[in-house]
Amino acid sequence: AAERVFVSPSAVHTSFEAGRVRITGNPLDAAIEGSGFFEVKTPQGIRYTRSGMFSLDSQRRLVTNLGYPVMGTKGEIKIPPGTVHVNAQGAIDVDGRTVATLKVMDFPFDHMPQKHFEGLFASESAKPAKNPQVQGGHIEESNVNSISEMVKMIQGMRNYESSQKLIQTLDHMAEVSIHDVGRVL
Q: Exposed site from 4, 78, 161, 179, fewest CB < 10 Å?
């Protein structure tokens, strides 16, 4: 019977490094420079995200792309009609008047949040960020470099092929030994 061999990952690692910041032109979008997470209210409780792709729902609440309310320092954020601007401290101004401030939370390095459903994170050890830096009208792109990840994948495949060739060579040597060494000349 043929023997089957499977591979399993030894660990899954989440990189919390910042990605590149890209301008979107949407004044409701926000990107955090450096560490920190936006706080979001979901049916499962408070969750955290670095994705700042925000919009307004039918009640003019600031919500994520999944429709969950974004939390401000004083609760849910409602934005009246007018020209919106998010400043570097996360304050949301409408026609020059501050209506709310984005709640930016941070985590101790040894207690980073855990992945949850829908790309959100969960944690019990969140604390308000000391000096959050927010860029309005921008979003943070993925922190994954697809080219380097593709190179790593190809290297892994080549290593696997080399190991496979080595095993085939050792099998052939064992086969030759069994057939030829025992033969009487």
A: 4
pTM greater than 0.70 (yes/no) = yes
Neighbouring C-beta atoms of residue 92, cutoff 10 Å: 25
Q: How high is the pLDDT of residue 127?
A: 92
Give pairs for 154-163: CB < 8 Å, separation 24+: none
Residue % of the chain over a pLDDT of 70? 94
Q: Could you list the beta-strand ranges (E) of the chain.
A: 21-23, 30-33, 37-42, 45-49, 55-56, 62-63, 71-72, 75-76, 84-86, 91-94, 97-101, 104-106, 114-115, 121-122, 127-128, 133-136, 138-140
Contact 144, 112 (CB under 8 A): no
Angle, alpha carbons 34-25-105 (nearest 5°): 30
